[in-house]
Amino acid sequence: MKHMTRQRRSALVALAGTALLAGSLTAIGAASSPAAAAGTVNCSGSINGKASGYVRKRSITNSTVTGNYRSAATVSWSPRAWIEVGGAGDETSWKSGYIVPGTDGTGRTVTIGGTIGQSVLTETKSAQLYRTNGSAVTGWSPKKVVNGPTTEVYSVTTSGVVQQTALSYSSAGARLGTVTNLPVTLPSTTTVAGVWTSHNGVMYNLLYSINPSTNKLEQIVVRPDRPAEAKKYVVRSLGTGWRYLSVHNCYDADGSVAAKDIVLINPTTGNAVRIRQSSGIGHSTTFSASSKVGTDGTWKWTGISN
Predict the structure, then answer these.
(1) pLDDT digits (tens, 9 = 90+) for 150-200
(2) Residue 216 is inside which H or E element, if any?
(3) Rounded to 5 degrees, what angle do the CA atoms 153, 158, 162 make?
(4) What is the Cα–Cα distance from 63 to 273, expressed in whole angstroms?
(5) Which of 38, 50, 171, 225 is deepest in the core (most CB within 10 A)?
């Protein structure tokens, strides 16, 4: 059941196994690591966006695109980011659920699904996102919303304050809860993306930001149950032109490892590259050389990580 493993590990958040989207998906708990030879590290995740009116999704392993999908029809809404909150699948089909902030300020829960070996999605559904107090999420227009599979929702205010919004789950679906300000800021940022990680049995979220003023990659390490302890680091210099980010977890034959893959995307040229950080939890400044992801010119998307 290799495909299900890929879907599960892209959002391997340690949450209770409750229904997320009207009972259709379940939160992802610990799963077996992808098969790998001893000492071999593979990193995988997915990147979603929009192009020519269609929802797009690509599955990535290391620098290889292993799955390429688009919706059967165009959608009227435009995404800003994709926060993966659950999934299901088997050897023939898969389904993933997301919280998707829109450019219109509306928060949506989006479910997409597909069949192995087919490029057109079999399902693309969106519904209104709600808060725990029952109110609809509208007017949601922070400066940035953090893209990726994190255990909570993160955003950046117009003044650069980084906020953590608690996620809760019930049979009615995912809900946004209490907002907490982190003791770190991102006053200058092009895009922010994140991923969960576990270290010594403790869950953390790792957030990465491109600072256009310095052309540096910045990283925030936050323990979601202790947001007041969040810290920011500068981990690498970058060239210019990178607009979007995606962060992927890495595994060897024994399970998850400290390394993280960071995919940088230039939607103007349509090019993407991958760099591998030796330790995400250690906010390492050691990275691999960049390698091309997919085919040059094919990443002219919007709404990956705004």
Answers:
(1) 999 999 999 999 999 999 998 888 999 999 999 999 999 999 999 999 999
(2) strand 216-223
(3) 35
(4) 8
(5) 50
